[in-house]
Write a structure and sequence with these properties.
The structure is a single chain. This protein has about 230 residues and is α/β, with parallel strands linked by helices. Helices cover about 55% and strands about 10% of the residues. It is built from nine helices and five strands; from the N terminus they run βαβαααβααβααβα. The chain has a five-stranded parallel beta sheet, sandwiched between helices. α1 crosses α9 and α5 crosses α8. The longest helix has 24 residues.
Length: about 230
């Protein structure tokens, strides 16, 4: 498996951008798409996936419901949503055209991290844990690189509050923002270690505390340093 920029057996590179809100994922994706040939960007496992594809994913997830409901003792609404999101995204990625570099936001690493942050008890279910391990191993073979963008929490808070885009911590206190970010940082570390142990890529960490242009240069250097 190659680094950020190396060719893969699929003839393309699949790179997930992760990091706390305000780290610059969308900004850097847009800059890389505009400045580098052959780079495309997706917002992956979020609600912007095709609706019909999500419905089909929901139908495929139905067989998991009874056992998961029984083991958790409650309707597994959030847990099944994660199953649907990753199944739908994986099928979309595998159908995607070959060539170039595909940057994904809201990809599998984020979804696995959300499971650890929002519903860690689900992994106590044997059925859900089996799905989680199987999905993580599969994605570890699909992703070529994971790039973790981060900055000081004060910088992140300023960015979140200064943009029109809504976020659940947009109006939160600095302490709440820090706690939210730290929870996801711990989850990112855990998922990154799990993926690396499964044969996946090691996360490349980039600081984005400066200007967007400087951060883009760092990401560009990461591509060039790995043979893009």
């Amino acid at each position: 498996m190659s680094g950020v920029g190396g060719e893969t057996s699929r003839g393309r590179r699949i790179v997930e951008l992760i990091g706390p809100p305000g780290a610059g994922k969308s900004t850097l994706s847009a800059m890389m798409v505009s400045q580098r040939d052959g780079v495309r960007a997706w917002t992956g496992a979020g609600s912007r996936q095709p609706r019909l594809a999500l419905i089909a994913g929901g139908l495929r997830a139905l067989p998991h419901l009874p056992r998961l409901w029984l083991e958790l003792g409650r309707p597994p609404v959030r847990e099944i949503r994660h199953v649907i999101r990753l199944d739908t995204l994986l099928r979309r990625v595998l159908r995607d055209r070959p060539g170039g570099t595909l940057l994904i936001e809201e990809g599998p690493v984020l979804v696995f991290a959300q499971i650890h942050v929002y519903c860690p008890d689900a992994l106590e279910s044997r059925a859900y844990n089996e799905w989680y391990r199987s999905a993580l191993i599969r994605w570890s073979s699909v992703l070529d690189s994971v790039v973790w963008l981060d900055a000081d929490d004060r910088v992140l808070t300023q960015r979140i509050r200064g943009r029109p885009k809504w976020h659940m911590v947009k109006e939160a206190s600095p302490k709440e923002v820090r706690e939210f970010n730290d929870a996801f940082r711990r989850a990112f570390v855990r998922v990154s270690e799990e993926m690396e142990a499964a044969g996946g890529p090691k996360a490349i960490r980039l600081a984005t505390g400066g200007s967007a242009g400087a951060a883009a240069d760092l990401l560009q250097s990461a591509f060039e340093g790995s043979g893009a």
